[in-house]
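Task card 7
Instruction: Convert sequence to structure tokens.
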Amino acid sequence: MEIHFYDNEVFVPNDVDLHYGWVNTIRAINNNTQQIHTTQMGVLSTKLFEIGYRIFIHPYDSEAFEIKLGQNNTTDREIRTGHNLFALWKNGEFY
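Output:
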């Protein structure tokens, strides 16, 4: 399963079924939807790993990247389950 986060809806490809709202995004996660595309960055959490999602970020000004537990190419920090991924993203940790 994959979840794709877009931090700017202007740059979402036209052929993507995008979940704009918080409720729709949470519903898709709870239903174990195989592939989710959303603008709801606040949902970004290590809990997504626990339920089986791979996490991808699509920044408006650069290439998409995956966040994984452990070492990542986009940060010097080792990502652990206790991290607040949203706070790390918001503070520019992954760029």
